[in-house]
Amino acid sequence: MNGDRGRQKEGRRKAAMKYDGFLARVRERGEYNDQDEAADVTNAVLEVLAQRISPGEVKDLASQLPGPLGQVLDHATPQQAQSFGIEEFYRRVAERTHARPRTAQWDASAVLTTVADAVTGGELNQIISQLPSSYAVLFGKADLAD
Q1: Is the pLDDT of residue 37 over 50?
Q2: Are 112 and 32 in contact (CB under 8 A)?
Q3: What is the enclosing helix (H) or strand (E) of 26?
Q4: If you write DSSP's letter for every residue of 76-94 in order, what string do you get?
Q5: Is the confidence at residue 122, as pLDDT, over 90?
């Protein structure tokens, strides 16, 4: 029994390290002051992304991201995807982070490039296929953009 409990703790620790590692990458890419700022920006961007892609795709994405990020996506998922362009995406992120849309573009890129690194290629393709091509650059896939 103790062996099982040890494995459970280890699994939780690995998940926590994965979450911390995700935020560390976002923090580095976005040049944020600390992990808390990176977490706030990450949550804001994922909340807006969850509104833009299909609920099924949100669920698939949530399953490939560290637990706390999956929970953010689950809580933000609407009944159906909303259709809005990239400028509205930036505006919605800016509204959540109390920043300007130009700053939100920077924030979205820091988070979504990290998402692209964290998920499988197939999952990334599924997400990008649901978005206008102008979003591709945010995921570090400028070659797919207009």
Answers
A1: yes
A2: no
A3: helix 2-30
A4: H--SS-----HHHHHHHHH
A5: yes
